[in-house]
Amino acid sequence: MNKDQESYAKKVSDLRVYIRQIQDILSRLIKECKHLIISSDWAGAYCNICGENFGWYCEESPVKYCEYDKSSGWIMCKHCQEPRERK
Ligand SMILES: [Zn+2]
Ligand SMILES: [Zn+2]
Asked: What are phi and psi of 28, to 5 degrees?
């Protein structure tokens, strides 16, 4: 590598380090968020505070989004019985 290429490579790798640090901070913030789940236009569930997406909005679920478990083979919501795949 010549000098220009070296400094270019350093810029790229420095930026990757920053991005990783920022992602760590972001995922920590999302993890600690006391989510306020609301329904989107397409019946999706997302947090009004951190913006995290939780799949389908679910009125019957205590956490307000559809949850899947082993008993339905991870296909149907254990609260509203709706399938994971929907139009
Ligand atoms: Zn949140
Ligand atoms: Zn559900």
From this structure: -65, -45
